[in-house]
Amino acid sequence: MAAERPGLPTARYGYAESAEELRRRIAGPRGTGLPCVVKPVMSSSGKGQSVVRRAAEINRAWDYAVANMRGDQRRVIVEEFIDFDYEITLLTVRQRPVVGGRRLSEARRTLFVRPIGHRQERGDYQESWMPCPMKPALERRARSMARSITREIAGPDGAGIFGVEFFVRGDRVIFSELSPRPHDTGMVTMISQDLSEFDLHVRAILGLPIPTINYAPGGAASAVILADRASSRPPTYPGLDRALSLRNVQVRIFGKPTTRPYRRMGVALATAATAGAARRLAKRAAGMVSVRRA
Fold first, then answer.
1. CATH numbers and ranges of domains, the chain
2. Confidence grade of residue 43 (pLDDT, cut at 50, 70, 90)
């Protein structure tokens, strides 16, 4: 949709429903080439996603995607590998046409949170921070693209928050993907500002006013707390008290009843004088918290 309707710049891509078709989508005259990224069309948290660097890895990538996809459709998307400088999430709020009894102009219906920088491993978010240093011209370009795609998806009456992700390479802004809901990288907004992504989502859906967002001075960051083993028993969290003893740190435990390797079980949030200092503090706090079998 992003490539064909609003005409946003994206990676070269194609769809495949078999390993052989996947091979053609990679190596064909209009293919993605190598390296490339193979993903299930429906998944979450990076499951089933892999980077293919050699032709010998194509069958394995297909099998891994099929084994980890959701739904009943054996279909993958293959994308050109973008060697980006950094990637951002631009939380984009689409408001209802009428808010508080007042009809909004089209221009005023779309609001934005400051760009959020983030880092992923295994296709899954590990940490995020804001503000993310970004040239104003590139931020304006990202906003224009986010406005176009969210308007296309939401239609005339749809409302809510969208996590729109972009790759930035030099002076290019490339659309990556979109989540039509609060975004995992946006959990940093629980400490970076007075209206979190969840507040903004609910207000937009209910047609309630959204005033100016007040941001904390300096920088803010989030870092995930991961499980390192599988267990069917509810976990405990040794070290939580140590993390909460740090100044300017908060911790959210998600209350998940079971664990598996690399499953996100919580997040540490921090503020500091700069985004870099906040990142270091959030990672330090997350590292203090262990996930253990009860």
1. 13-80 (3.30.1490.20), 83-215 (3.30.470.20), 216-294 (3.30.470.20)
2. confident
245 is catalytic: no
Active-site residue 184, yes or no?
Answer: yes
Q: Tell me whether residue 222 is one of the annotated catalytic residues.
A: no
User: What does pTM read for this prediction?
Assistant: 0.92
Of 12, 23, 264, 284, catalytic: 264
20 is annotated as an active-site residue: no
Task: Tell me the residue type at 221.
Answer: A
Q: Which residues of 96-105 are buried (b: 16+ CB within 10 A; e: fewer)?
A: beebeeeeee
Give the model confidence (pLDDT) of 248-270 as tens digits: 999 999 999 999 999 999 999 99
Q: What is the pLDDT of residues 75-96, one digit of tens each?
A: 999 999 999 999 999 999 999 9
